[in-house]
Amino acid sequence: MDAQVVSLPLMLLRLVFLLCFFFSRLFSSAEAASAPTLVSSLPGYDGPLPFNLETGYVAVDEENGSELFYYFIESEGDPRRDPVLLWLTGGDRCTVLNALFFEIGPLKFVAEPYDGTLPRLRYHPYSWTKAASILFVDSPVSAGFSFSEKPKGYDVGDVSASLQLRKFLNKWFTEHQDYLANPFYVGGDSYGGKIVPFLTQNISEGTVTFTRYPFLIDGYLVGNPRTGEEGLDYGSRVPFLHGMGIISDQLYETIMEHCEGDGFTNPKNALCAQASDKLDRLLQEVSRPHILYKKCIYTSPRPNDGTAERKILKEEPAGVLKHQPPRPPRYCQNCCNYLLHFWANSNITRAALGIKKGSVEEWLRCHDGDRPYSEDIKNSIKYHRNITSKGYRALVYSGDHDAVVPFLGTQSWVRSLNFPVVDEWRAWHLDGQSAGFTITYANNMTFATLKGGGHTAPEYQPERCLAMFRRWISTEPL
Predict the structure, then answer these.
(1) Which of these, 122, 109, 103, 124, lies nearest to 328 by C-alpha position?
(2) End-to-end CA, the chain
(3) Number of domains, the chain
(4) Tens-place pLDDT, residues 73-120
(5) Residues sharing a CB contact under 8 Å with residue 13, sequence separation 6 or more, in sequence order
(6) What is the DSSP secondary-structure string of 284-340?
(7) Which residue among the candidates 124, 384, 401, 455 is catalytic per the annotation?
(8) Residue 201 and residue 172: Cα distance in Å, rounded?
(9) How far apart are alpha carbons 366 and 305 in whole angstroms?
(10) Taking Cα atoms as reference points, which of 278, 333, 312, 397 lies closest to residue 108?
(11) 55: domain CATH number?
């Protein structure tokens, strides 16, 4: 379906909806929401912020007292016209500050040794807020500063967390009606990319009930996304690692012959098991998020890890820091992940962000298996097909040096949707040089690679990723 044909009904539907919604507000009052915090400065940043930042909570499970925390950064371009993007990060239960500070947000940490003082921040010139307002949400409950008053509120999964996000959006847009007329997109990467198509479909089906769902969706984007289908997500590692010279011809041939489907992740015979062990040992020699970077330690504290370093902030910490991450070498790409732990656990930072006292004792970058979580979306590919067949726009992008979810698997399932090609495989350019390669299908889906990108492509190729995003979100060809 042609993008221009789709855009006109969406514009008319949005106008009709806005009228219905505003009239409904005359006769009913929305649930009261916590007052947001307008943040003009942040600890570690020198001077006032060069963008508008709002933080706040939205209740998504009143029975258990569950609230999702958000960071809303207004577009640095034209916020009254630019799209609004909801962004979800990967997991398990990781904070959306990963995306804000390390990928697509307007701030980054200054990479320097931690000395006990608050880490310093700097402006990031390749933020996606150059082209859109971004709503960063800590989801699911327990990620980042999102919390639940009752333990039962932490027992969520793919589906329930998605439904809570839909409720979050309903309430957020009710309190931010100035953005109802803006184009709206949902985006995410890694595990978040698995949630995005399900949430997008859920939102698109709910828009018919105007007074309950005060927002319309124009499309979605996912980066190096998981689908939930392990044979597809991880099975593509074998040809990827072979093509990159990490495994030999002989090992590749053995796996292809003796490990059917995703058999190498769950070997069913001795030859496959032996080959899988060799594969694992060779894969351990490289950095999975980006195979050309130095291999580094995982910089998120693991619960009940008695070996974690016990370093105390010189500024007053928010509480006793029991689960501090191990310190990575300075040459590591993820060295600033270590700094984030101390920045977020400072009382000064929490006061600036408007964090509710007692809601989160110790902030963790990720929760790895310490709380229940149901991976109940087994395969998200059908949701991609459902949404795009209705004409919604979609961008699927992959850093081409990622060994976590290699681009080969993503390219494969995009092609399996069996939509006709409208723009053949070609290079896309930045400053006269190829920045990656792309192909566009008749269902308004564009697939693009980022040359030199890793699992979180904007972390490794920020300038190229901004160029890709800016063009796509503006409905321009890459």
Answers:
(1) 109
(2) 18
(3) 1
(4) 999 999 999 999 999 998 778 999 999 999 999 999 998 888 889 999
(5) 207, 216
(6) TTS-SS-TTSPP----SPPTT-TTS-----SSPBSS----PPPPPPTTSTTHHHHHH
(7) 455
(8) 19
(9) 14
(10) 333
(11) 3.40.50.1820
The CA distance from 452 to 460, in Å, is 7
Catalytic pick from 82, 138, 233, 402? 402
Give Cα separations from 142 to 69, 196, 367, 472 (angstroms). Answer: 10, 19, 8, 32
The answer to whether 402 is a known catalytic residue is yes
Residue 110 counted as domain residue: yes
d(CA 214, CA 347): 36
454, part of any domain: yes
Tokens read off for 373: 């979580």
Query: What rounded mean pLDDT belongs to the chain?
Result: 87
User: Which tens digits make up the pLDDT trace of 16-60?
Assistant: 444 444 444 433 333 445 789 999 999 999 999 999 999 999 999
Whether the CB-CB separation of 18 and 181 falls below 8 Å is answered with yes
Cis peptide before 92 (omega within 30 of 0): yes
Active-site residue, from 142, 146, 190, 300: 190
- The 8-class DSSP code of residue 30 comes to P
Token representation of residue 222: 């996912």
Task: Please indicate whether residue 374 is annotated as part of the active site.
Answer: no
Range of the domain at 43: 3-229+378-473
Question: Cα torsion for 71, 74, 76, 78, to the nearest 10°?
Answer: 160
Asked, for residue 280, whether it belongs to a domain, the answer is no
Query: Are 200 and 220 spatial neighbours (Cβ–Cβ below 8 Å)?
Result: yes
Least Cα distance to 90 among 140, 147, 146, 162 occurs for 140
pTM: predicted TM-score of the whole model, two decimal places: 0.88
The answer to whether residue 158 sits within a structural domain is yes
Residue 400 designated active-site? no
In order, the DSSP letters of 371-397 are S-EE------HHHHHHHHHTT-EEEEE
